[in-house]
Design brief:
Strand content of chain A: under 5%
CATH superfamily of chain A: MetI-like
Family (chain B): Belongs to the ABC transporter superfamily.
Distance between the termini of chain A: 53 Å
Protein name (chain B): ABC-type polar-amino-acid transporter
Number of strands of chain A: 0
Largest sheet of chain B: 6 strands, mixed
CATH architecture of chain A: Orthogonal Bundle
Shape of chain B: globular
Largest sheet of chain A: none
Radius of gyration of chain A: 27 Å
Strand order of the largest sheet of chain B: 6-7-8-3-9-10
Oligomer: heterodimer
Number of strands of chain B: 10
Helix content of chain B: 40-55%
Order of helices and strands of chain A: HHHHHHHHHHHHH
GO cellular component, one term (chain B): plasma membrane
CATH class of chain A: Mainly Alpha
Distance between the termini of chain B: 48 Å
Number of domains of chain A: 1
Structural class of chain B: alpha/beta
Radius of gyration of chain B: 19 Å
Keywords (chain B): Amino-acid transport, ATP-binding, Cell membrane, Membrane, Nucleotide-binding, Transport
Catalytic activity (chain B): a polar amino acid(out) + ATP + H2O = a polar amino acid(in) + ADP + phosphate + H(+)
CATH topology of chain A: MetI-like fold
Chain lengths: ~280, ~270
């Protein structure tokens, strides 16, 4: 009698758990497809194509969009990122220092530059600095100014990222290094920072991509034709041709860099993971 | 002429050592001498201060009061070059603390190159010798994460040995290992003891202490309760606290019953 009870018990009324699950998944697919179809039907594709995908307009952008605009965007970003890495590491180490004023200065820096919009910092570098120090030339002209502005913004974020990464390395690593006779600085450089670097690879990539996009603010510094980056280049051409195709092409050029970059970083991460775990 | 005084001088000399963490006094006046070539096992219940004592010997913990000498150099002197002294003291940790981003060989060569400034070829040679010593030559190019706990600990020992230390400190080197892996690590430590290394070992391995140690030190409540040969301290403990600890260690089930009764009597100090 108990045996039959047990066999009968699991058969409940209505759908089983498995049936419910497949029904729920089926519904989600239906909703997704419906949304895509609705969007495709609602949009006016002809007008969109006219405004954003004119082949002859796109054609006249080449090769300048790559050789000039994309090259400048990458140049601004890379120099800004290198500056941000250096300054960010210094500020992170100051933040972790045993010397009070260092911690204090680093904290104030991070709060200010993390809180201000990048736009304001570009205006500040482009307008306020030349006003305050007349006659001073920033090395590299627009390129130098862009590197500094992007670097100042990036450093505030990267400093916090570095600090978190350094603190995420187990305490035993520093102890092991010190017990082998490493000085604190040498242990930091040879043992801790390489490990922290692996931990923060994903957030560092994010910061690079953010700077890559923020490089569009370089136009606030006042640029010559040769110094234009993707966004300004696209907008300028959009206004001269009275067509938005250049905006779309410029946008695709950004993705041309960020998507492969994401792929490479995921590969690097997987490789680092392989070694560590 | 200094030959004699050198031989007479203890390799490790701890005098009147106190250590507090905030209001919590963990070490309450420790005096301990360890001679050259001696193997001393420090045993005691958790929280007795034995690991803290060991960590004070290479100043990973800064003593609150007292002096520590290793090889005649006072580590507690604020002007001492602590990095230079630590090169002469090898340390093995419970959690191994290998550098996970480096291969086994790099774990051994990087400290030699950065700290001792050995050239590449010499560092590699010393590394190979020491890996051979712990029986892990075939793992030279592996990463630590791919090794078992016992292998990692043997690499950690080899890494310390590659620096050519005069003294080796072991902080519960087998406590984080699966029971079947303990033997390999203890075998390496036995070999070191046989080769005449001065060793201070915090451990719960009573068999190892009994067979290998020249002296066993029993600590409880931040003081040294008993200090003598293994036969004396483990075989025939004079103090009630030592007996209680050993009986709990050798027969945990038995100790539970005992604890209940002793709690009724008035409890034992932790």
């Amino acid at each position: 009698m108990t045996a039959t009870d047990i066999e009968v018990q699991p058969r409940r009324k209505g759908l089983t758990r498995r049936q419910k699950r497949s029904l729920s998944r089926g519904l989600q697919y239906v909703v997704f497809v419906a949304a895509v179809v609705a969007f495709a039907l609602a949009a006016d594709w002809d007008r969109l194509q006219n405004q954003f995908a004119q082949k002859d307009v796109a054609r006249q952008m080449f090769p300048d969009v790559i050789t000039l605009a994309l090259k400048n965007t990458v140049l601004y970003t890379v120099s800004g990122f290198v500056f941000a890495l250096t300054l960010g590491l210094v500020i992170a180490l100051m933040r972790l220092s045993s010397v009070g004023p260092y911690r204090w200065v680093a904290g104030v820096y991070i709060e200010i530059f993390r809180g201000l919009p990048a736009l304001l910092i570009f205006i500040f570098i482009g307008v306020a600095v030349p006003l305050a120090f007349p006659g001073t030339e920033i090395v590299g002209g627009t390129y130098g100014k862009a590197a500094i502005a992007l670097g100042l913004v990036g450093a505030a974020y990267l400093a916090e990222t570095f600090r978190a990464g350094i603190q995420a390395v187990p305490k035993g690593q520093m102890e092991a290094a010190r017990s082998l006779g490493f000085s604190p600085a040498r242990a930091m450089i040879s043992i801790i920072i390489p490990q922290a670097f692996r931990i923060i690879l994903p957030p560092m990539t994010n910061e690079f991509i953010i700077l890559f996009k923020d490089s569009s603010l370089v136009l606030l510094l006042g640029v010559t034709l040769e110094e234009r980056e993707l966004s300004k280049f696209g907008r300028d051409l959009a206004s001269t041709t009275a067509n938005s195709t250049p905006i779309l092409v410029a946008g695709l050029c950004y993705l041309l860099v960020t998507i492969p970059l994401g792929f490479v970083v995921r590969r690097m991460e997987a490789k680092a993971q392989e070694a560590v775990k | 002429m200094s030959e004699k005084s050198l031989a007479a001088r203890p390799e490790i000399d701890v005098r009147g050592l106190h250590k507090s963490f905030g209001a919590n006094e963990v070490l309450k006046g420790i005096d301990l001498e360890i001679n050259q070539g001696e193997v001393v096992c420090v045993i005691g219940p958790s929280g007795s201060g034995k690991s803290t004592l060991l960590r004070c010997v290479n100043l990973l913990e800064e003593p609150t009061k007292g002096q520590v000498f290793v090889g005649g150099t006072e580590l507690t002197d604020p002007d001492v070059d602590i990095d230079a002294v630590r090169r002469r003291i090898g340390m093995v940790f419970q959690q191994f603390n290998l550098f996970p981003h480096l291969t086994v060989t790099e774990n051994l060569t990087l400290p030699q190159r950065r700290v001792l400034r050995r050239d590449k070829a010499q560092a590699a040679k010393v590394a190979a010798e020491n890996l051979e010593r712990v029986g892990l030559s075939e793992k030279a190019s592996a990463y630590p994460a791919s090794l078992s706990g016992g292998q990692q600990q043997r690499v950690a020992i080899a890494r310390a040995l590659a620096m050519g230390p005069e003294v080796m400190l072991f902080d519960e080197p087998t406590s984080a290992l699966d029971p079947e892996l303990v033997g390999d690590v203890l075998a390496v430590m036995r070999m070191l003891a046989r080769d005449g290394m001065t060793m201070m070992v915090v451990t719960h391995e009573m068999t190892f202490a009994r067979e290998v140690a020249d002296r066993v030190v029993f600590m409880d409540g931040g003081v040294i309760v008993e200090d003598g040969t293994p036969e004396q301290v483990i075989g025939n403990p004079r103090h009630e606290r030592t007996r209680h600890f050993l009986s709990r260690l050798l027969d945990p089930a038995m100790a539970e019953v005992e604890e209940e009764t002793s709690d009724q009597v008035g409890g034992s100090g932790a």
